[in-house]
# Entry
Amino acid sequence: MADARPPKSFLLSAELGEYLVAHGTPPDVVQEALIEETAALGAVAGMQIAPEQGAFLTVFTRLIGARRAIEIGTFTGYSALCIARGLPDDGRLVCCDVSEEWTAVGVKAWENAGVGDRVDLRIAPALDTLAALPTGEAFDLAFIDADKPNYANYFDALVPLMRTNGAILVDNVLWDGRVIQPGADDDNTVAIRAFNDKVADDDRVDTVMLPIADGLTICRKR
# Structure
């Protein structure tokens, strides 16, 4: 079961993480199957979002009434599944990823969940996909969970594409606590620190950082 695995949040004990998942909307059979299939990939499965984060994405998508959404970094499709489920029947989610192998796992899950027709998967570097979007494209919701050194570039490309009051959500902003460890100077940690500082000072958005899973920043476009 998904809730029996160690929590992604370094702030939670295993017991508290299990309690937290159990007291939200739990993963259904399609999500459980996707979690299991992703786990079989080995260590790379750590890139999958946590179950409670998936539940949050679905609820948040519905709360803001999102119809047009975009995701940077799809992996095996769990976050896309959760966002797509929060969209109305005529809603659309553009998924940007470079791996046909990993996203093929997600495609099966989306179809099994009955939301495949809401997902527009684009296999290409995300910055190329963003640059090719039509002028005037307006998204209600964006989710960034991809290569960390490009976080700032993805964010800057997305802001002009968001409607006023649209939300950009960004994963892994606490990076297992390494963002406050002085000796942590690897490329990913340095990039996330710089991104967090940048967004906190960006007058185009209102921002809150939440300790969901490995840290989730929510930015509202002003």
The chain has one domain: 2-221. The helical segments are 14-22, 29-39, 51-63, 78-86, 100-113, 126-132, 151-158, 187-200.
